Amino acid sequence: MTIENPDAFGQILDESSLDVSSESVHQSNEHSSNSKEWAETEAIESTIALGDELADDGEGEQAETVTTTDDLGRAVRLPKKKRPPKYDAEEFKLRGRRELCKRIAEIAPSMSKLVKLRLLGSYLDSTKNKEDEELTLIIKKDALKLAERTRIMGAILNADGNYAQNQLKVMIVNLLLQQETHELPEHQLDEKVIEFEKAMVKKSKNIDLAAMKKADPDRWHHFDTYRIVLEAAWSDNDQISNDEARLLSVLRKHLGISHEDHWLIAAMLKRFPKAKCVLHTPEEINEVRKDLHRQGVVWSYGSDASPRIDIVPFEIATVLRADFSACELQVVNYRRLMSHDSILASEIRETLQRNEHDRSGAKADLIERIVTVGVKPSEFLGELDKEKLSSICNGFALKTSGSKSEIIQRIIDFYDDLTFEPRTSKDLREVWYSNYELLASRAYAELRAKKVISKDLEIEHYFEDATGFLFEKRLLVPCDMSRKDTRSDGRLQLDGNQCLLWDCKSAEAAVNLQDHLDSQFDGYLQKERDVGKQPLAFIVIAPSFTPLSIKLAYQYKARTNWDISLVQADALKHLADSWFNISNGQPFPIRLLNRTEIIDKERAEYILSLA
């Protein structure tokens, strides 16, 4: 495990900053839209069949051109063929890491009351007489405030406690940030901290300053200068004051000394992890962990029946990675980037030499060195020419136009979203479920950019299948689905012949129940009754509903005694995810959705409290 320099500061990364090209306006005339899409598809397939390159790369940018001459010697500009994306590349199988990271709203319901009180103790004026559910609602409601940059950076940079404890906090936070989803079971975190300390002590014993002086005089000079200053700081009562710690931080930045280098030098002086290189105990690590909980930097969730998990929520990890650890890429994905076929060993050597580091060894050795010495991915990529950077983007079907800095950020964002190991989901619906709100609101541009859809018409079926997944795999309720136009999208079987019917309505605007109630839903309910079923209600799932819809639902209830439940897609997904985290494998009491009302997130929370 290696640690990136936590003293470098940068601009907060926008985790969702992949360039998305402008999507054409969706046509209301479905026949016209389908014809246009069919024609475009035919044109593309014909071009590929001929082996030619399109003048447009699919994202609205013109292909690069080359200049040649015709038979008369005149200059002619022809489209330059681009290397087609390698859709079988390993990286394509790894996308989706950020989606796996838990957000504050997902973590809060699974936290113990003690941890919630510890977290909110320094945030609220008083937590006296507040119940567990009330604390959960406060955390969810104030999620943005709890992850606010000023609060997070103030908590971790202005931490009280002695120097050794603060160094341990840095280790814990950085170890968590290097995990795939920024989380570890408590006992594993203890083990990794102690394992890291052992590795630093062992590595320090192999440092040969004389050999460093001979091979790299400049690097040795910086290293030795910092060693002398650090030793002088420790000589004053065997303590490092807050003022001395700040000066050391400034000196590290000036000399290019990473925090890992700092720990190695401290170990050489027999001052790391503690005096005489004594390791921290699990008890000491636990005390610092609790302090991080109180500061709201590291959170904890889980029950007594399962291992508790220490985690940095995604919103907070975004701030810390940008402004505290300067972690543009986790080490696993940094290695992947540097292993790209387009990146040469000679280019890595040049970057290491410019930063006064050892440039010897094979490419694998160079990669290991560059990911540990504090050279940021953006710094390395900045040394490459724009044509090579565009080629890397093109290989991953990313937009290749824009400024050099935009292209670099695009590459970093792509690699940052890769999981550490392949995840082959047996249920393809899980991918659609992870984009549930986008499917509900027909976010064409974003869904295409994320490669969730290739055709606009796929949205309708994917939304339905994702809803089936939601009921079956998240709410753990058996669900029958139908593909017939004369039937509802699905049925939830209850006791005996009773059931609930549901139907998905994806739309770019609020759905008006009037457009579907008499022409569709009433007929679906009647057909169920005609075949001997006893439907109790109809659940309509959409991004939102018009104000008139609930009035019509009440009128229909009064006329037929059938409930019409208008459920917002984001509320249903929130309900499903929350239940999945706390249910312990028990099915959701689906009869709670047998009600005539609009169910938004707030109402979903109330229904969840009844379950």
Tell how many strands the DSSP assignment holds.
11
Overall helicity? 40-55%
Portion in beta strands: 5-15%
Task: Please outline the major beta sheet.
Answer: 6 strands, mixed
Task: Give the CA-CA distance, first to last residue.
Answer: 43 Å
Low-confidence segments: 1-64
Name of the level-1 CATH class of the domain at 433-450 and 454-610: Alpha Beta
- As a whole number of angstroms, the C-alpha radius of gyration is 29 Å
Major β-sheet strand ordering:
6-7-8-9-10-11
The total count of helices amounts to 29
What is the architecture of the domain at 433-450 and 454-610 at the second tier of CATH? Answer: 3-Layer(aba) Sandwich
> Structural class of the secondary elements?
alpha/beta
Q: Within the CATH hierarchy, at the fold level, what is the topology of the domain at 433-450 and 454-610?
A: Restriction Endonuclease
Shape: globular
Mean pLDDT: 84
